[in-house]
Specification:
Family: Belongs to the zinc-containing alcohol dehydrogenase family.
CATH topology of the largest domain: Rossmann fold
Pfam families: ADH_N (PF08240)
Protein name: Enoyl reductase (ER) domain-containing protein
Order of helices and strands: EEEHEEEEHHHHEHEHEHEHEEHHEHE
CATH architecture of the largest domain: 3-Layer(aba) Sandwich
Distance between the termini: 38 Å
Number of helices: 12
Keywords: Oxidoreductase
InterPro entries: ADH-like_N, ER, GroES-like_sf, Lipid_raft_assoc_Zn_ADH, NAD(P)-bd_dom_sf, Trans-enoyl_RdTase-like
CATH class of the largest domain: Alpha Beta
Number of domains: 2
Length: 423
């Protein structure tokens, strides 16, 4: 048989982009904008086909945060086709259908709001034939957030799930000098080995709508890019690892959908309407064994979730563990409660025997070993049908209609799923 040849891809000299020129402004389309240039062995060029919209894309200009320079190219996730790779690159090939996950918001070349974008090869996920470009555009940032929250902050080991990463061990093998200074403590000192979440443990997720909660006129708690659909992916990954899930949501809006959902149905569904009652229900049904919580709403609900945790109480599975060696100090086996805040944490320091966590998102793009491990694992999960994309609520057509889509998100019209834009 003749050797397969690389398909010929013609890259134009210019493209259309959406630019943000100032706070509280809409994005403006600009034509004949330069195609971004790749540099180095780890960068590829993607022709964008579908963009996934995230809450930060409208919150950032409205509240003037997370904008490193002006004019700015926004957008954190998209799907499309690889059109340029470095010489002798072994993973990606020209013509591959991929997800590009850009957690590096400071590099405008990687913004999704343009026809062509640069991507790090280890932040690029090849799509299997069974996953559409539309579905692929919905889950990248949420997957990264979920995997890091569970694997780093809560210590979940995914080794038994299609040879997934054990991020707790991986980060310690890399060493602190390879980690950004501002996240080293979260990566290496935030949870001890004996405290790690394991199969059979309870995890509570206070997710409100499992979608974006901020409405027009409300100030966001921080600039986390993917909190809108992260609860969905947290539930999926946690379930694969054997954790038992408590989901706290507005049952009037989402109770029936979640209760009947084949993918993200929790073990315990609690109404968020009365937060104090929700805390009582959680504590009663978990028997005082809940040590792990993730909040996707903000500091107020994170404070309520903290009340539901039981610091210092052993989990059911931990009572079966062998005793510590005699030389181990007594307090080293203490099991603390761990609360992850995707969009905010309670005011003040964590109470005794509890720890607060923020997700070290920059691990994904600044530490190649972490980015590669997560991207390759997502490829396997998708190929084997173990991860499902969030539901697509609607589709806008064309870069010029991104603003229309963001306006719909501002008004709170997109609930329970994702809004995407075909480029």
């Amino acid at each position: 048989m003749p050797e397969a040849t690389t398909p010929e891809i013609v890259i134009p000299n210019a493209q259309n982009v959406l630019l943000l020129h100032g706070p509280k402004q809409q994005y403006r389309i600009e034509r004949d904008y330069p195609i971004p240039k790749t540099s180095g062995k780890d960068e590829v060029l993607i022709k964008n086909s579908v963009i996934g919209l995230n809450p930060i894309d409208w919150k950032a200009p409205d509240f003037n945060f997370g904008i490193p320079e002006l004019p700015y190219i926004s957008g954190r996730e998209c799907s499309g086709e690889v059109v340029q790779v470095p010489d002798q690159h072994t993973k990606l090939k020209i013509g591959d259908r991929v997800i590009s996950i850009s957690t590096d918001y400071r590099d405008l070349r990687k913004g999704a709001y343009q026809e062509y974008a640069v991507a790090l090869s280890y932040n690029t996920v090849r799509l299997p034939p069974n996953v559409s470009l539309e579905d692929g555009s919905t889950l990248g940032v949420a997957f990264v957030a979920a995997a890091l929250a569970l694997g780093v902050s809560l210590g979940v080991d995914f080794s038994d799930v299609l040879d997934g990463p054990d991020l707790f061990s991986l980060l310690r093998s890399i060493g602190e000098d390879s980690l950004p200074k501002d996240i080293r403590e979260e990566c290496l000192a935030s949870i001890e080995s004996h405290e790690r979440a394991r199969s059979g443990d309870w995890l509570a997720i206070w997710g409100g709508e499992l979608t974006s909660s901020t409405r027009m006129g409300e100030s966001p708690s921080n600039n986390f890019p993917g909190s809108a659909t992260s609860a969905n992916l947290i539930i999926q990954l946690a379930r694969l690892a054997g954790l038992k899930i408590v989901a706290v949501v507005d049952k009037a809006k989402h109770g029936l959908r979640l209760a009947n959902h084949a993918v993200i149905r929790p073990d315990l569904l609690v109404d968020s309407h009365d937060p104090e009652r929700a805390v009582d229900i959680i504590r009663a049904n978990t028997g005082g064994h809940l040590r792990f919580g993730i909040d996707t709403r903000g500091k107020d609900t994170a404070a309520k979730l903290l009340q539901a945790l039981s610091p210092g109480a052993p989990s059911k599975r931990s009572t079966m563990a062998p005793p510590s060696p005699p030389a181990t100090p007594e307090d080293s086996t203490r099991l603390r409660a761990h609360l992850v805040g995707l969009t905010g944490l309670p005011k003040g320091p964590a109470p005794e025997a509890s720890l607060f966590h923020t997700v070290p998102v920059k691990l994904y793009h600044e530490v190649p070993a972490v980015g590669e491990a997560l991207s390759l694992w997502l490829e396997r999960l998708l190929a084997n049908g173990l991860i499902h994309a969030p539901e697509i609520i609607d589709i806008e057509e064309g870069l010029e209609n991104v603003n229309k889509g963001l306006d719909r998100m501002r008004r709170g019209e997109i609930s329970g799923g994702k809004l995407i834009v075909r480029v």
